[in-house]
Amino acid sequence: MPSPSPSPSPPSSPSPAPSSSPVLPLLGRGVVAGGTAGLAAGLFSLLLAEPLMDRAIRAEEKRSAGEHARGAQHHEELFTRSTQHAGLVIAAVVAGLAVGVLFAVAYALAHRRDPHAAPWPRALAFAGAAFVAVSLLPGLRYPANPPGVGDSGTVGERQTLWLASVAIGVLGMILVRQVYVHLSARAVPVRQIAAALTGVAVLAVLFLLPDNPDPVPVDAELLWDFRVLSIASHALLWAVLAAVFGGLGLRAVRDGAARGGTAGAKAAGVSSRRGATPTAPPP
Question: What are 120-142's pLDDT values in tens digits?
């Protein structure tokens, strides 16, 4: 009597591969997004802010010519304006690359705590908070000035004040976030009001810093236009960074879902082609 053939065993599902660290892919996204954002901000400044800078430089040259006529020392420019224009774009790209790497590192730290958050809103929220902390709040306390404004002897002091304002802005945004999370059990309006009041307190602390030590002998309209365009270039930098970084994150999620669906179909013996009939598991 023939022995009954053993019943076919169901295909064993493949063991899930260990999840790789997302740091390197996030750094790659940060480099691409930062370089793109820096190029956009550099071209924006070249096309819109540089004419204002040329006006400011001509005004500075007139003042220097008057001082030179009175016996003061006059310094010639080391680089032509065309070279300076090219250097502006290159410096903006390099700065964008650095900002993109730092952005990716901060994003990776948040991703480790909550790996299931959607990449698009998280990128927008991160970039918005970074713009407020690094660009808007320091820009309100120490607005940008056209070239030629400021004494060379106070450069170190002005840089220290600006770095202090950036540090206060970053720590302030972290504090706003902590207040909002700490009040998670409260109603949404209470959390939002508490976060807004914390932001106002951070701004008040910023204005406790000393004033800019140098006068600004520039036409008021020119000065206002230059400062508005400076903030606008920062806003463009962070907006492009968030859009490219978030868009790359969405594409990575879609690619991962597609690879997961194909792997699952192969494990079940199902063809990945639409409308194909499933194949029976091998005996």
Answer: 999 999 999 999 999 999 999 99
